[in-house]
């Protein structure tokens, strides 16, 4: 994940394409077949091994030293992360996780992970990840294990910092930096994140987002709205003791919090 090696110098006869040796590690036979079937259309990728558990994946990765590793997270005997931890020093593969579990993704991407495919992924999404792997292999002359160590520290860190907000859709996982979010609105059991012209729905509570984003300059201005204070352009009075906020994008928001509290927070930025 975010790790690079030099692609194999072997070529397909007459093609001039460098062969990327790949290992598929997943305990589900249908999942391995899915990856293998998509790779069948990629003449520059050769599947050199398939592994049904983590111990086998570790052993084969050590033995074959592939360029690319498609790795499940939850496998018998060793997890995907334990496989990475167990690798001895030496050339490390580009790692693409193929998993139904998204709980580790946000910390992985915080340290520039290559890709994290959520099952069931589309062929288009898979090939996007594969193209990124090709680019990574081409741009990196030699591997280094510092990124792997950094990744594993982040994955097992109890804190992990503020980080980014992960929004999952059918086609992708999107990571929003706090400064990219103008406001958050409650919507039943969900919240709506407003980022530029886009809206992203997240299954979470406004209270949870308030706790997470307060240190990044967000404030709850009403029962249902959390606002990025850096996005406020004006405070406008609209009646006796009542105010609205005008954001830089033109949005007007009713405000029920105290004016003094808001001014104190704005003055502290």
Number of domains: 2
Shape: elongated
CATH topology of the largest domain: Rossmann fold
Radius of gyration from the alpha-carbon trace, in angstroms: 23 Å
For the record, the CATH class of the largest domain is: Alpha Beta
CATH superfamily of the largest domain, please? Response regulator
The H-and-E topology, N to C, reads as EHEHEHEHEHHEEEEEHEEEEEH
Tally of contiguous helical segments:
8
- The proportion of strand residues reads 25-35%
Q: Extract low-pLDDT stretches.
A: 1-16, 141-145, 152-161
Structural class of the secondary structure composition? alpha/beta
Key attributes of the depicted protein:
15 strands, elongated, OB fold (Dihydrolipoamide Acetyltransferase, E2P), Rossmann fold, 269 residues, alpha/beta, single chain
